[in-house]
Structure formats: C-alpha cells, structure tokens
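Contributing: when you submit paired examples, paste them exactly as shown. First protein:
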Amino acid sequence: MALKNPQSKILGVLGGGQLGRMLIQSAINYNQDIHILDPDPNAPCKDISQKFTVGSLKDFDIVYAFGQGCDVLTVEIENVNTEALEKLSSEGKQVYPQPEILRLIQDKRAQKQFYKQHGIPTADFILTADKAEVIRNSGFLPAVNKLGKEGYDGRGVQILRTAADLEKAFDAPGLLEKLIDFEKEIAVTVARNESGEFVSYPAVECAFHPTANLVEFLFAPAEICREVEEKAQEIAKDVILKLGMVGILAVEMFVTKSGEVLVNEIAPRPHNSGHHTIEANFTSQFEQHLRAVMNWPLGNPDLRCPAAMINLLGEEGYSGPVEVEGQEEALAEKGVYIHMYGKKLTKPFRKMGHVTILDDNVDNLKKRASRIKELIKIKSTQ
C-alpha cells in the first residue's frame, strides 16, 4: 500500500536544535518537507530545513502564525507555548505529541502526580512550594530537589543528602523526590501512531557525567536480566498508553538493587538515550518519530548490533569557535560513526555531537568507548 502523498503534508517542528537536525536527515529520505521555528538565527537546522523561521517558542502569536503554514506539528523541546498548539489543534491541525501531554510534561510536579494516580511505579515524593517548605521537610532527606518547571539537561536538579545541603534548595515550586540507591539507570523508547500501532526499543543503559548531570555513555542493549527487561518494557508501554500519546516517548528508569523498576522522567520526543539507533537499529528513533506523527506504518525497532554512544560535550575551560581534536584518528576505526551538530560555538558541557560505536563483542565495545571518549575533545580555537 502506498503512503498517502506523504510529501503533500508539511511537518512543522518547534525547535531547531540537534534533534530537529537529525529528524530532517531522516525526512530527506522520504522527500518530506519540514519547517522549523527556533529563537536562534544560527540554530543547527537553519540551513537544512525547507523553511526556517526565527522566533520564540513561548510566544503565542509566533507559534500560532508558524503553525498556520503546517499540516502536522511536533516538537524537539517541551518548553513551548501549549495554548497556541491547542488553538491550532482545535482548528484542524494535527499536533503530536498532543498539547495537553506537553503541558503535563512541562511540570515535573504534574508529571509525578500522573504516575501516582495511574499506578506507574516511581520514587516517593513530596510537592514543595519554596525553599522554606523544602527545609521543613528535612526529615525526607536524602532526596533530589527538582524545579517544577524550566529544568532541562541537568539544570533544575539538586541532590540534598543531609541538612547541610538545604541551602542549595530551590526557592520556587518543585518537589522532593526520595534519593534512590539504584543499581542502573536505563531507558526504553516507545512509539505510537494515530492508528494505534505501537513499537518498543530494547532497553539501554545510561551512565551520567558526574557534574554536568548529562548522559556521558550509553550502552545497548542494557545488561539486565530478562525479568527486568520485561518489566521495563511493560512500564514504558503502560506510560504511553495511559497518556494516549502519539509520537515517540523516551522513558528513563531506575533499576534498584532489589530489582524494582521505577520511572524517573519521560521525554515526548527523540531523546539522547536513542541516538545510537541511527546506526545500531533497523529504524532510528528519528525516522520512527517521523513515522509516528505522520501516521505512517511504524518501523522495526530491533537492535542490529551491540552499540555504545558517547556524548561529545564542550570541554571545561573552552568557549568560542569550535575545534575538534582526535576526530581523524577515531574515523580510522571500524564501526565508529561521528555526528556533529552544526554548532559553531562551544562552551563547557554544551552538547556538540555524539559518537556511536558498533562492535559484536560487548567487552571490547566498552573498552573502545572509554578510549574514544578520551580521544575526541571539543575545544575552542580561541
């Protein structure tokens, strides 16, 4: 059966960063036109989208006007104006993920309450209005203090282990989440289209940077037993179905030392935990997101080969025009794929690119990942 004139529908994306860039790279294979809205005139999508508009993602009028020129709308970042998307949806535009889901995910307080109300396993938590209320709940420590809104990429998160840490608490609406003594952090990506078709990717294992709170390494598949894998798959499926969401959803989870699986956070878009899928899986997360929001048949999510993914972050102490060290040496190796995000300026811990490594031998894969992480450095020419 032929796709119903796929190129006749324009897909609009709110956000023109690296996720939008990799989505466009998948869309090119299908002659699918993509229009981008982003506040940065030099965003990574600037030169490769069919239409690029500079404007705030939070401004009602700008988002609404942008959406008028599109048939389907999606996001590569959650922090967007949902009221404009709701109006566009009410006027017949297809908006995926749905605006009400974006609004829920924009607020970690609402997100945690959703898990509790729908029987989705997650860490115990207390909602807090301000710093004073965090201090009054010092008996709940050790805990993670999270801002309700505006937190992303490790920002808006503080670990409070003892009363001595309370000065770091956020003086804004947020929550205290019980600190989990976990064994592993994993993620499962799931996708669903408007027709109700559903697919799920194998769980991956994430290792985070100790200070930036960003994924530093990712390994696929996760080294977990079959029981934990099945539990994680069931939870991720449960989340997307209870949300009723169309699109792709990354579900980040903790595996406790007793074998419990607890949802940490979710992302209703392509996510850092799925970058390896470009080379390592039959269908990349970016193509899958495209298929889901356009209501095309979903692709096979299976893993072709064990893989590692390394985030390329800007080195500490460097800001300015980008200089990449070690790239040529890494490219000489079999099974190494480098993705740079088109960002002209680096700064400490900025996401500048990623590397995927494929290797049938998992032990060898981990050794190579550590070595290549030390080999490629993002610095500045100034």
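Second protein:
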Amino acid sequence: MSDTHPILEVLDLHVHFKMLAGMVRAVDGVSFAIERGRCLGIVGESGCGKSVTARSILRLLPSSQTSGQILYRSDTDNQPVDLVSLDPKGNAIRAIRGRDIAMIFQEPMTSLTPVYTIGEQILESIRQHQTLSEDEAYELAVSMLNKVGIPDAERRFGDYPHQMSGGMRQRVMIAIALSCQPRILIADEPTTALDVTIQAQILRLIRSLQRDLDMSVIMITHDLAVIAQLADFVVVMYLGQMAEQAPVVELFQNPKHPYTQALLRSIVRPDTPSREQLHSISGSVPDPRNAPSGCRFRNRCPSAHDRCVQDPPVVTFGPRHTATCWLYVDEETGTETAVFRS
C-alpha cells in the first residue's frame, strides 16, 4: 500500500555539464513523484536525459551543476532529505546509496569487477551497510542468489563474472542491489543487452521482487513494451525535458504529446501485416548543446507551427496527466482547450 506522501519527489531538477564546447543542459526542469510500492517508468530515446536523471538521484554525477530538489522520505524520519543538498562524496549520501536506494546498471559485465568472485561482490555490499557476522553475511548472500534464480547458488558463489551468461550476470547485479532490501530500486535499461527470452525473465523477476519487498521501482527504458509490463505511472522525456506524464493505462489509451504518439506508433505489434511499412520518427534527438528554442521536439514534429518557437505551456488532461504542448491552447484566446475539470 502506498504511503500518504511520496517516497521520492523530484522537483524542477536541472543537471548541466560545463564542457569545452559549451554548456550541456542534460536535464532541464524535470519533476515527478513515486509512491511506496509503485513503479515509475521513464521513457524516451537515447540522449533524452533518462540516465542522467536516474544517476542524479544517487548523486553519481559529482562534476555536474545540479539544482532543484530531490526529496527522499526515509522510514525513520518524517522530514524529507533533499539529496541535492548532500555532498556527492559525503557520508550522508553514501549511507543512502545501496541501503535505501539501489541501482541496476545497463551492462552487468562492465558493472561487475572481473577480478572478484560474484560472492565477494555481494558480501562487499552487505558489509558496507549491515552489521553481520561472516556466517550471517554469507547466508544472506547465498539466499539473495537463490532469490534471483541463480541455480546451485552455493557453488556459483565462487564463480567470476566471465563464467556466467549475460542473463545470470544481470541476476547477480539484482542480487547485489537488493542485498540490503532497499526501499527504492532504480533500474537503468536493465534488459537492453539481453535477448527477448532472458529479458522477459528479468522483468518478471523485478516485478515479483517489487511485490514481495513492497519496493518502489524507477524503470529507465526506451522500450514502451517494458513500460506496459511494469509501470504504474509514466514520464516521457525528450531532450532533457518532460513531454508528458500520466498513469500508464491513460498514456497508452489517450496519449496527448506528439512525441508520445509517435513513440506509440513506432511499436511493432504482432498483428502488423508483413508488408506494411513500419512507423518511425523522422530525424534524431538534437545535440543538447544546440537544443531548439521553444518546444524541443518542434524540428521533428508533424504538428509544429509558428508558436512552437516559444516555450510551450503545461496542459492538464486528467489526474496526474499533463503534456507540455501548444496544440491544446487556443491560438486566438490563449486559453487551454483541454483542461481537466473535476
């Protein structure tokens, strides 16, 4: 059951990187919230700022210029902690990483250390956040490997990452992330490098563990099929900004932003005729250093018009359903034509 207050709130988050070629505005004014036990999906093409948003929550981008608020509510303190205000290398955020908020990265082979066994790497995570004896830590590590579906866990405990398949390595990453039973799991494209069969197994595993542990999940992906399987609520990002956010059923049934509509049209469906041309979004995501003025999607949008050179308004269509677009504002009166009224 969800708590009264969101477990995590991101408010007007900005993440910029100063580079020789100019300022990169990787995330520019993103806001969302997630409740206890729910799954939030963040979707968009590569270069839209999804991973930067996720890593900002754990303060894993110390060289960035970060502003806004990331409010985390722990079990023991009613007052939220603003993670943006914490030193990225300080003890306060180190105590939260792994223990309260854990993260699974996209490629397990580069995330796991090749010179240590998988057992040693799970034990390291356990020792960092829990005071357990060697025997207790070992039993917990083996139980986590069993929980994520590693067969013959005690024997595989001494294996090195290269001795495991991609799917098994990803299960090990999940075991490490969940070894301290975090309240929030951030999964950054956890199935991209896996074949469809293993992908389905990993998604079922995450969904099962979320339910068993009453854990919140932030799923970062470019794949709307993954969003449909896991998410309760969806944030659609484009070039560092939010294009649309809505409950998952509402987003699939009634998408409003042209970018969301284009993403949904691009899904390959089982009933698509074999000779039918597949839909695609023309062009590509621009370089963040040269983002278009106004609506950032306007150079690729089939519905773009003169007003799109100005910053678009946020229009409300229903409870927690908004889109940032000029299409729903009357050109003559300037009033929103699709505002939700209770």
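If you have annotations for the second protein, write them as plain sentences, like these:
The chain has a mean pLDDT of 88.
The radius of gyration is 21 Å.
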